[in-house]
Amino acid sequence: MVLRGYVPTSEETLQTLAALRLQSLNSDFSTHAPFPRLEELFPPHVLHARLPPLPHRPPAKCRGARLRAGLLAGGLWGQALAKQRAERDQRLRGRLREEGASTMAAIVEKWKLLQGMGRPEAMAAYVALVREWPGFGSTLFDVDLQASPVGAGPQRLWLGIGAKAVSLYKPGEPEPLDSFCYGRISSFGASDSSTFRLSVEDRDLLFETSQVDEIAQLLKTYLASAGTQRLPRPQEPPTSAPSLEPTVLPQGLCPAPGPWQHRPPVGSSHS
PROSITE patterns in the record, alphabetically (predicted)? Predict the structure, then answer.
């Protein structure tokens, strides 16, 4: 989950986590130790974020302009553009290699400082750093917020469901935009197969997600385990929706699988 960017923290801490992972895997630094690839130690998206954005190409304003663009693209101009793109991609790849080499060097220097640390100690230090994020232990879902009490904020959010509250995070930000304890939740459920509704006192939050049933099941489980005196009333799902029976409570930071990204089950990896 650290490698997939679901633990928002500084680059310095991410490098320390990578060094602790190396110490856990290989013990003390050695030039002869098997060395994982950088993407197995450090979040790749952090390196990509350092690269300059791709230039924006404004759309053609009229049919004639589109026709001329099409004709040019099929001739020498198109070949020149293809050459420019290839050169740009090559420069970006070179820049990415440089950033990767610099990051790996910093990780190795931190690894050398861990000499003498045993594997259990390295693992404990790793988990202790991850636990510094206040959202640790929540289950995270990638959602699109359709109705929001937090104003004109970002639409793509993390919906974090924890033992004590439901929180909304801007992806990559350590502090939640908003948080609701379970006593404030009046009802929840599926509006349709891809929309989850969460009613908090006099407000309705609508989330577009492919994980409607998983969110509802997890909410029911946490509410039952919390032993609240008055459980919120689940809204009736569509008749075609599966039964919302409680599931086993996940442990630790475990983002729910999204449609665009496979994520391992709980306990498959500590990184």
Answer: FERM_3
